[in-house]
Amino acid sequence: MRDRLWFYGSYRKLNTETAVEGVVGNANAFDLSRWDWREDRSVTARSSAGRSIYIGRVTAQVAAKHRVSVNYEYQRRCDGTPLKVETNGCHSRGTNWVAATATSSPEASLNYLNVPYTVAQGRWTNPVTSRLLLEAGGTYYSYLHAGGFLSLPPDGIFDIGVTELSTANNPATGTPYAPRANYTYRALSEYRDDTASPNNWNASMSYVTGSHSLKVGYQGAYQAASTIRHSNPTLLSYNFNQGVPNAFTVRIPEWGTADRTWTQSIFAQDTWTRGRLTLQGALRYDRAWSYSPAGLSGTNTAAPQLGLSAITFPRTPSVDAFNDIQPRFGVAYDVFGTGRTALKFSGGRYVGAATNGLAYTRNNPAVRTVSSVSRGWTDDGDRIVECNLAILTANAECAGLTGNNLNFGGLSGNITQVNEDTLRGWGARDHDWQWSIGVQQEVLPRVSADVAYSRRSFHSFTITDNQARNPSQYDAWTINAPSDPRLPGGGGYPITLYTPTQAAANTPAQNYITWETDFGPARSSYWQGVDFTVNARLQQGLTLQFGTNTGRKIDDTCATVVKIDSPDPRDCRLTPPYQTTVRGLASYTIPRVDVLVSATVRSQPPLALSATWPVPNSIVVQLLGRVPPGGTAGGNTNVALLDNDHRLFADNRRTQIDLRVAKVFRFGAKRLDIGVDGENLLNTNYATGYAGTYQFSTGNTALGGTWNNPTAIYTPRFVRLNFTVSF
Question: What pTM, to 2 d.p., does this model score?
């Protein structure tokens, strides 16, 4: 079997723990008689993530011109920890720390995960002649919890969770009501079981001569995804403001969604060189369709307290089907015939990815049905929602629902409808056109520079129109942003908002998903930018690379947005500033000792910030003349303080340097590779997330509370050792 069978195997185990600043334990955790959060500084929070990875690969030369390879990978992913030291889990918590997220107390954090990932791949190649190559292959992929870190830990508390809006001091404890705004504690209210299996297969034929390269092929894919949302026995979670209930969320139990998406594609591409001119052309046909299978969407569990029986759906097509022809082309010309200056131009049409989302799940009746709603709540102090939840209008302690929430559970007979033309036809699939023009120049021997301008325009947008409402059914009101030197212009600028009339809000929505162009001209949506790159391959193994990318994306919907439901033109034209990303690479092999040293640098622009201002409805009443529909006198109305005309960015670029040192040792036919990776060499501690709630206070004495405080920082410096034995 020598020189006919090759095998490879590897095992890796990765674990990372990072401090979550500002989050500590809850001294009242596990005491469900308590509804307040009380800090426990003896327990800090960390993010905890790890994987065990097993890889095996076999390649066999089964005949003179036939090679087959099979690769299998199994991963066991473990994130988070149990809540108690004595509880066994895939990770163990420490005596003075426990896993948590930046926005939740440990007992309410959605961060526990203990699930497998499986990937199996096969590939066959057959070089029929020196010019003709045949290939075919496929991939099977299966994983759980595609939706993210949404599991219940082994000792998790599955009950009513509380989200506290305020960071003001609680006079009963002398500590804040919560360490940051919109902080969740007490229990986990819901979690999800997600499964997914995206699979693909392909075949191609390539014919290559000295000046000509032709390739034709086929690609297919099938993606299956299913989700079940588990709600705690009460089906509820609460919202508090300074310890006082003001709203709750109720969910249909055991709500499932399931989708299946198929794609088929054939393509042909050709490259032809004649003299100084190289031409490339390609044509691709794509077909995509999707459906939701029978019995897997909705729920088999009745909820009599909501007035709901089991809700199940038959097999329902979604996309049926998209068909697209996509041309692509490219030209390269050696300007002076010296091989030192090349002018390049390329362009093409590209469709959006066909996944179990967006258009491919749009017609799933479980997606179109309202399965959870939030309601205003005026509690009498017992922390029990005392109203008839099956009555969607105001009753007892509960505020009435409005708009599309009046369609909760399909009780109104209304669910979102979809224009079938958005789910089928030629050219209906979301797509973009891309083109680029650039020049490549040899600056010095072994040193080249590239400059290119690129533009990408986006097409086929849909909107959701509430056909039971029109722009005339809104009242405008204006509020001034708080004065704060950190806000654009020091704050104080006017913000105009639009709120539906009570009569309009009391009418159940009749939502209809259709083309945006039904209301006016197509939006202007494009990205444009310039790339600059320098490559140097110098003597003695020194390689240098430096590059920048500068660009921005424009979106303009002003011609149509004011005609769809609300007349609010705010942010109808988004024009962010141009931003630049810088990247660099250097590698060098030290002579004689044969040690490779390489480093990379990446500098990204600052993050854009957000600021949501929860304004008490007592203030809104003075400006609007009434409580907003669906709200309560003691509730809040969220106001976005930042928009296209008032932008904010973090005050630092995100820059990091990574280093790698590697050495190869040879022992006869055996080889040992040793590598040392230094990630974040300078221990850069830039923030990767910021608190987005701007706390309201009379006279703005709190200056937004914890707004703009970092909620996460980049992974600290760490060293990784790699050992590879080849024999």
Answer: 0.91
